[in-house]
Design brief:
about 375 residues, mainly beta, 4 helices, about 10% helix, about 40% strand, binds beta-D-glucopyranose
Length: about 375
C-alpha cells in the first residue's frame, strides 16, 4: 500500500515537473492524464486543460479556469462517442463579453454559494454580510467573480478508480462579501465505470456559509445535437421548495403530486415545461429545487435521465439534500459553442446537487453554515451508462 502511495506521489511530481510547456501524458492504472496549455486569462493568468481518459475510452477535460468541465465524452448504445456537455473550444469563449453578460456558467465549479441568496445579504452570528446583487438584486452563484471565474491550482493523481485531478483554491476573507478565509479542494475523478465523480471539501477560519456545486449543461444526444426536451427525467423527490417570481425560495415545501414538478415517473422534459403552473412559469420552465427523498447527509440517487435515441443514461448521485434542475431556459442562441453551434433555448440541462436556495435566510432549511474546525463535504457523481 505504502509503495503504491509512494509511486503515485512520485508519478504526480514527475508530471508536474515535466509539464511547464507543451503537453505531457501520464499513465494511470486504468487510463491517462494529459496536461496542455489552454491560454491566458485577460488578467494574465495561465490556464491549463487536463484530459482524464479511462481505458474504456471515456474522457473528461477539466480547465483550471473556473474548475470548468470543458468536455465530457461518453459512449452511446452503439459505442459511438460524443461530447455530452455544452461549452467552448477555446478559453476565449469563456471570458468573452457575450458569455459574461449571459452568465450561463457552462460546466463551472460554483461557489461559495451556489444558487440564490435573497436580497444579496444574510446574517450570521449577529453580523450582516452584503454581497453583490448580480441577479435582480439577489446574489447568484457566488457573486460577480465566483469560483467559476478564478484560476485553480491543479495536480494530477493516479488512483485505482480512475485518473483524477486535485484542484485547490483559497478564497480570501471578504472575497465577494463572504466572511472567512476558505480553503477549498475539489477532486475530479473519471472512474473506470464511466462516472465523473466530484468531491468537494472546505475549511474556514471564521463562521461562513458554503454551498458548492457543479454546473455542467448536459445534452445526452451530444452537445450541439438539438434540444433536450425529449430526454426522460426521473427525480427522486416528493417535494420542491417553491419560489417567488425572482426564484427566491419562500421557505415553504410543496408536494409535487398533480403538478408538472412530479418526476417520480420518468417524463419527457418537454411534456409539461409550458404548463400554466405559476411557479413553473417563473422559471420560465424548470429552474427549481427538488427536496430529495433521503435522510440529510446520506449519499443516494437524486435523478436519472435517459435520452431515448442514443440510449445514453445519466444518474445523479449525491449526499446533498437538494437538486436544482435547470432546463437551459435562458439560452437564446447568442452563444456559439463547440463546433460553432448556436446554443438555442433548452439545448442543455443542468442537474446541480446542492443545499436549498437562500438557505442562509431560511431558518427552516438545513443549515449551510461552516464553522472553524469543521470540514465541509459534498460528493456529486454523474454515472453514465446505456440502455
Ligand atoms: C440557475 C438559473 C440560472 C443558471 C445560469 C442555474 O443554476 O438556477 O436561474 O439562469 O444557473 O446562471
Amino acid at each position: 500500500m505504502n509503495k503504491i502511495i509512494q509511486l503515485i506521489t512520485v508519478t504526480s511530481l514527475a508530471i508536474s515537473a515535466a509539464c511547464f510547456s507543451g503537453c505531457t501524458t501520464m499513465k494511470t492504472p486504468n487510463g491517462t492524464i494529459t496536461k496542455a496549455d489552454f491560454g491566458t486569462t485577460p488578467d494574465g493568468k495561465t490556464v491549463e486543460l487536463y484530459t482524464l481518459k479511462n481505458d474504456a475510452g471515456a474522457e473528461a477535460r477539466i480547465m483550471t479556469y473556473g474548475g470548468i468541465v470543458q468536455s465530457l465524452i461518453m459512449p452511446d448504445k452503439h459505442g459511438q462517442m460524443a461530447d455530452v456537455v455544452l461549452g467552448f473550444d477555446t478559453l476565449d469563449g469563456y471570458v468573452s463579453d457575450a458569455y459574461l453578460k449571459g452568465c450561463p456558467y457552462f460546466g463551472a465549479l460554483i461557489g461559495r454559494y451556489g444558487n440564490r441568496i435573497g436580497g444579496a445579504k444574510f446574517t450570521l452570528e449577529g453580523q450582516t454580510y452584503t454581497l453583490a446583487g448580480n441577479n435582480h438584486g439577489n446574489s447568484l452563484h457566488g457573486g460577480l467573480k465566483g469560483f467559476d471565474k478564478v484560476v485553480w491550482t491543479a495536480r494530477p493523481m493516479a488512483t485505482t478508480h480512475g485518473p483524477a485531478l486535485i484542484m485547490t483554491y483559497v478564497s480570501k476573507d471578504g472575497e465577494e462579501g463572504f466572511p472567512g478565509n476558505l480553503e477549498v479542494t475539489a477532486i475530479y475523478t473519471l472512474t473506470d465505470k464511466n462516472a465523473l465523480k466530484l468531491e468537494y471539501t472546505a475549511k474556514t477560519d471564521k463562521p461562513t456559509v458554503v454551498n458548492l456545486t457543479q454546473h455542467s449543461y448536459f445534452n445526452l444526444a451530444g452537445q450541439g445535437n438539438g434540444d433536450i426536451l425529449g430526454h426522460l427525467v426521473y427525480i427522486n423527490a416528493n417535494q420542491t421548495t417553491p419560489v417567488d417570481s425572482l426564484l427566491i425560495t419562500t421557505g415553504d415545501f410543496a408536494d409535487v403530486t398533480g403538478t408538472p414538478f412530479d418526476f417520480r415517473t420518468p417524463t419527457a422534459i418537454g411534456a409539461r415545461i409550458n404548463d400554466t403552473n405559476t411557479v413553473l412559469q417563473y422559471g420560465p420552465g424548470y429552474d427549481h429545487n427538488w427536496v430529495v427523498n433521503k435522510p440529510l447527509g446520506q449519499f443516494g440517487l437524486q435523478a436519472r435521465v435517459t435520452e431515448p435515441v442514443s440510449g445514453r443514461v445519466m444518474e445523479v448521485w449525491s449526499d446533498e439534500p437538494g437538486l436544482q434542475f435547470y432546463a437551459g431556459n435562458f439560452l437564446d442562441g447568442t452563444l456559439k459553442g463547440k463546433g460553432g453551434v448556436a446554443y438555442q433555448v433548452h439545448t442543455g440541462f443542468a442537474m446541480e446537487p446542492q443545499h436549498f436556495p437562500d438557505s442562509p435566510n431560511k431558518p427552516g432549511f438545513p443549515s449551510v453554515e461552516l464553522k472553524p474546525g469543521q470540514t465541509y463535504h459534498n460528493t456529486i457523481v454523474y454515472k453514465f451508462s446505456v440502455e
